[in-house]
Design goal:
- The structure is a homotetramer of 355-residue chains.
- By secondary structure, chain A is α/β, with parallel strands linked by helices.
- The first copy, chain A, is built from 15 helices and 16 strands.
- Chain A has a 7-stranded mixed sheet, sandwiched between helices.
- In chain A, strand 5 and strand 6 form a beta hairpin.
- In chain A, helix 1 crosses helix 11, helix 2 runs parallel beside helix 11 and helix 12 runs parallel beside helix 14.
- The radius of gyration of chain A is 21 Å and the shape is globular.
- Chains A and B meet through strand 1, helix 1, helix 3 and helix 10 of A and strand 1, helix 1, helix 3 and helix 10 of B.
């Protein structure tokens, strides 16, 4: 295998993050998140967000963040509204339901909910024979690589406010969204638009770790109890603190995300210039080129990626995911190999439909 | 503060473990525990245990290990029997109950259950108005620093077998138990005596990480689903694999535990030679000297430790915990300071009762 | 209001059931289902089913039956597959999820699952990031009034067997299904086709009460613990026993269901003879005539029923539900009133499309 | 068997309650508690309590009432404090834990908690490694037949208020407590002293049914969702409404309880006059005479009762429970038989110690 484009967590940590893990290693620190590096990391994040009153808690992964957030947000009879493609719906092995809560699916487009689709679900839940929606779950960037605009989140927030619900954002790939050229949002837009969200570390330079940010005052109370009860409170909180300190001391977090996005853009442009089409314009670090199946088979000998969906007879879309660690030679090599393989197959005549 | 003797997780990781975290950092690996270092670490552990068929899963902390184990072991109406001092009973913020299961307390001595105390609980649970005990939870070493002998675990196992129950061991401090001079158990005794247990990394040289070992075949099925559902499956499994590889390639795991025990023994002998008594003979890495309250106040100016319990008018037991990272000069400094402070207080006349 | 056709639980109990409740009222009986009438009722049901080894437990309602069944059937990471219209999905306020389990929706036709639609869901759930389907939930008759044939249930059972799953049937309206002229099933077909199901009393002559029948041996163990834990074990089990004894001593249960079906059939034929169309041919005790909206408004002044769905501009389907207690004069009165109102509106010309 | 003194739910319903069940049987009513009899019964209870704003919900049993109350009162990380003898602790098969909550045991005397014992538990729960007590559970009369005074409940309420906790009362035998000559409480004292409680029907004249009363405004919201989610919402709410209407139209509820208490008193006085002693003075409908074991064996041939505990060599306490339905001839018969058997054994010389 020359390179794997399966996902954005195949590599370890960025070197600055790794170094940070070693710093002050033998100094004695208070346990369970009361260490100095966790405090400093939280302060840096609060400052970056312009949210001096936000509570910051570090957890070890996205599913853990999501299940604790829902357990904390929802009353026993409340549900969370999500897109069918939402991570909590398909890829968390029933973690939300295991905390006792139903997920209500709302119609979505490219992995994104709209205020209308959310309202439609709310309107169907009229009495005590049905759950009562208590929160909306969105991902930024979404599981399909798309991003919400400021206005879209604002509409969702207003819908939530109108119905006594919370708005929660899964930011496993928040960096790729904020660093996207298509994004109209910055760090300081997050706090006012969200009740709780997390800033993903695992997929953006850290070995592990996500920073849960609580903006809504009602959700802060007792949160460390929630963390402990779900097994999320690490004895050595420095594991998280030191990594996030490294990511947020300067602009490393967004730089890494931008690197990933740039590689995706480079793949997109290279593949487009060869005349191939795409499922969608890439917005973040995922690219979905449509290729002849025979060519896909050839590529799979040297590269790892998922075949996303069949597009038409003989043609499928593949998914290429880039990360902060994707080597430039892997990108260039892929394009060169594709160009070489393509030539021998002369697919151009058939592919214009997908441009 | 000259040194903290509060616990065994105040420092970071052993240098060999830290280095291992960096090795192969930019190599692409399969996610969620399917990486090569996790496989190698699991193989090393299986070999050490002499349990080629055991399943090994890595998780990030003890509470997480315990709650997943109980969720996997117990039917909805089943309970787990534990000592009142058991970690799951007091110090996990209701994590076991949050998975739906009651903890039945059995009488214990120095933190240890006996087959008799377990049977007494079983005998009380006679019909469907009560929960049915489905597992026994023990800690090795216990929360009070004591250890089970092989015979004691064997009796507990037989009691479990006689009643269709599982025996589970919390090994957050398993190293300190195995490395104790009082221990009659070795690595190869664990598998035959236990249905599931974990080997604690966090308190013995790792930054984070515990290795869950499943011996009973019925508990292996679907376990990765349990892990995912509780948010325990890290995207970058190498975080655990590389650390446990470092701990188990040679004998590092037991060496670190022995270092901690030795420091505790040194404290014990030094304090005893000054004429002070103890709550109990130290067996692992915890020492409970009984000191005059005034002397305790003096010591607290320079050292961090918990005052464990009042023993008599003017005298209390304190708890000193050592770790693999406790510097020898901290041990020696503590003894020298105690000796100096003691001299000025001449406590000997009053303390003979506690010898 | 002349009569309500909203549902089949608006009236109290059949007179024979009511009388049974009083019989032996002051005789002392063992509690919690160990009374003689519960034993006799269970024996009668076992005999009727031809299932001498089945376990029978009585509970107070359908949601209670369903949630206990799922809690008993499923491991923590397992889900149940249901139709979107399934009672557990929409109308139980998240009761299944509150026991920790996800509901996976499979495509359905007229409220019925097929082996194919179930297999499609199973095939999508391939690894530990997703729940694992552990049971299939069907209703007989369904929430839309349709019924499964013997072959259809047989196919579902085979699919379940092939994947280590259980087949569960919600029989809130089992009587109406068995008594349907379209049914090819009798009492003795149920046991071999199902792992667990319940025979609904509440909607077929009882004041309250459903009889859970456990056919699969693995599901019998500890079931009374499940009942107690979910608050389903009534101190005075005679409440259920005496009612089900009355329903199953002779053929009362099916007679009541047939009465309800006959009234529905009478409504269907009467309405059809006036030239109106229907959403579907009525199979059990629900009729869905399509009427002009103006006529619906007139009818609503005297009768209670739900407007089911808009069918075309100016026309909607309504739902009329009959029960064992529906008076013949209510049926005849409704037809007479409809005929009178219809005449004045002359809708026939526009309605032929729906015949 | 001449009579069973095992418990207070061996008989069916009081005749007035039974008749009420039949009244208006074929009238069509709204479902799920929206029927007229449920409304009238709730109004009668509100009036009796002097709590016009209280919410009243009917459920089918005590365990169901308790588990729903706790699910509604507690946040995920909160526990409920109870006596070891509390029904939720021992006799509900882990129902509270199945909703995710730990029960913290506080020291108790004769089944009663004190403000001091509750505070001791609260004081031990200091940080997020432990659950946070969120409610106190008491029973009135207690599982041991004793009762709380107004002052005792007041102290418990104040303790709850001081720590942001709720006070909940299990009134399975509330009638026997209010009707006790030792009680200093009346109906109107309950509301101001409690946040939520239930008035037990099953053990005081009803076939089934308990009336949950919610006094604290914060607990009213969404409660019907809780009921539905736990399978407690009966389709035919009239089952509860009609019975409680019968019990509360006049003073039947307290009259029945007084009848039970009087029978217990009569047993007490009769047995005392023969020279036997008792574990405690009977306060409600439970009597605990201490008898020679040989005499107990003789009595067991004709009467059903539990042997409660061994008191000294050759002597044990038995428990006799009376109910509204205990026939006077059963009481008199028991006394006559005891007198006859006693005579032949001449136990008096040995029993004075227990007087």
């Amino acid at each position: 295998m020359k390179h794997l484009f399966y996902n954005d967590y195949s590599e370890g940590a960025h070197s600055a993050v790794l170094s940070a893990l070693s710093r002050g290693n033998l100094e004695q620190e208070a346990g369970y998140g009361h260490d100095e590096s966790s405090r400093r990391a939280a302060d840096l994040i609060r400052e970056r967000l312009g949210q001096p009153d936000a509570d910051i808690h570090f957890v070890s992964g996205g599913t853990q963040a999501n299940l604790i957030a829902m357990a904390a947000m929802l009353k026993p009879y409340q549900s969370v509204i999500a897109a069918a493609s939402g991570h909590i719906n398909v890829h968390e092995s029933g973690a939300i339901e295991a905390t006792g809560h139903k997920i209500n699916l709302a119609a979505s487009l490219e992995g994104k909910l709209s205020a209308e689709s959310v309202r439609a679900v709310i309107d169907q839940h009229t009495d005590e024979h049905m759950v009562r929606p208590g929160a909306v779950f969105v991902s930024q960037s979404t599981e399909l690589g798309s991003i919400y605009s400021k206005n879209e989140l604002q509409s969702l927030l207003e819908t939530c406010r109108a119905h006594g619900m919370y708005l929660y954002l899964d930011g496993a790939r928040l960096g790729s969204a904020l660093a996207s050229p298509q994004s109209d949002m910055g760090w300081r837009d997050l706090g006012p638009l969200l009740d709780m969200f997390y800033i993903g570390g695992t997929k953006n330079g850290a070995l592990l770790g996500e920073a849960l940010v609580i903006c809504h005052p009602a959700l802060k109370e007792g949160f460390r109890h929630h963390l402990k009860q779900r097994g999320a409170l690490l004895a050595k909180g420095r594991v998280f603190g030191s990594q996030f300190e490294a990511l947020f001391q300067g602009d490393l977090y967004l730089e890494l995300a931008k690197t990933a996005n740039d590689s995706a853009q480079k793949l997109f442009e290279g593949i487009r210039s060869m005349g191939f089409g795409f499922l969608a314009q890439p917005v973040t670090n995922q690219v979905f080129p449509v290729l002849p199946d025979s060519l896909i088979s050839e590529l799979q000998k040297d590269y790892g990626f998922y075949v996303w969906q069949k597009v038409s007879e003989g043609f499928s879309a593949i998914r290429l995911v880039t990360s902060w660690a994707t080597p430039q030679q892997a990108v260039e090599g892929f394009l060169a190999d594709l160009n070489r393989l393509k030539g021998s197959q002369n697919p151009l005549g058939k592919l214009e439909d997908y441009l």
